[in-house]
Structure formats: C-alpha cells, structure tokens
Amino acid sequence: MMNESDLPRHESILYFETIIKKHDKVRSLDKVDDYLYCLTLYNSKKYRVYLTNLYTVGIADVIELSNLHDINAIVTMSSWNSYTLEAKEYGQSIGIGVFIFKELMGAINYDRPAQYFSGYDKDGNKVYEGARD
Question: For residues 3 and 23, which has the higher predicted lDDT (pLDDT)?
Fold first, then answer.
C-alpha cells in the first residue's frame, strides 16, 4: 500500500507533462487521473502511464498498480528512484514497462516498450538503467 511520499511531487508531474509532449513519437497527452496519463503515439497506439515517486519499485508495487489501473507502464519520477530487477522482469512478463523517466523516453520509440533496455554490458547482458540490485 502506497503512502503520500510515494506519490510524485507536483514539479515532477509538470516536468513529465512538459517533456513527454515534446517527444517525437507522442501525438497527444491526456490526463486520465491524478497520476495516470494516456499517451497517443504517432503510430496511433495508446500507451497508459502511471507516475509514482516510489524510491524503489518492487514486484508487489507492480502487482498492486496493475490490479488497480489499466496501465502499460509504471514510471518512478525522481532521479534518485529505481526499481528491482524482479519488478522489471515481472512487469515485462505481463506487458507492463517499469521505468525511470529517462528509460520511458527511450522505450516509446519501440513497438514493444515494456521490453526496452538501455544496451548491453561488457558480458553481453541487458542493461536497465533504473535497476537496483
């Protein structure tokens, strides 16, 4: 169960709204609820994004938020926030992207945003910028 400190700050919401509208793949942005947005992409797909300020998004958070909301992504907004690899992988398995904001900006360039990763490490493993060990 989330508490008030887990909700994104007003300036984080304004930042999201301002920056995401400028993304080349975003045709429009609609606010569905306080922290839930629907992006209409230029390929006409709808992409529903839930914003949070959870310090570390865990698998229980992904389960809770996906049960409460019809979403395609969970984005933890503050630059010091992250998610567990378990949360990321579980989200991917059910078609929900778990991201820090920077990753969302990259993910919406692809047909399957939930599967987005930042690159590969020197050993050939996928890199998720927002993952915390």
Answer: 23
The reported pTM is: 0.94
Task: Give 33-36 contacts, CB < 8 A, sequence gap 24+.
Answer: 33/69, 34/7, 35/7, 35/8, 36/69, 36/71
CA distance 58 to 85: 8
Report domain extents, the chain: 4-132
CA dihedral 95, 133, 83, 120 (to 10 degrees): -50
Q: Which of 75, 90, 48 is nearest to 129 (CA)?
A: 75
* Both structure tokens of 37: 């947005």
